[in-house]
Design a protein that fits this description.
Elements: E1 2-3, H1 5-11, H2 16-23, H3 27-34, H4 42-51, H5 56-59, E2 60-61
Antiparallel strand pairs: 1-2
């Protein structure tokens, strides 16, 4: 699954560490999602959408 997570994070000036703390996950999880090696669980996808004030569909594309 493709995603815009890294782009959206950088637009806000957040580090991977800052985003991971906002979401309560490890920095490695953020790295894996950004690289497309890991698809987040549905609850995590909803938290990402909430943190970015966006929709899941805007962050992730099949």
């Amino acid at each position: 699954m493709n995603n815009r997570l890294a782009k959206m994070r950088k637009e806000r000036g957040w580090s991977q560490e800052q985003l991971s703390k906002k979401l309560g996950v490890s920095r490695q999880t953020i790295i894996s999602i950004e690289k497309g090696h890991f698809d987040p669980s549905l609850p995590l996808a909803f938290r990402l959408a909430d943190v970015f004030d966006s929709t899941i569909e805007n962050i992730f594309q099949p």
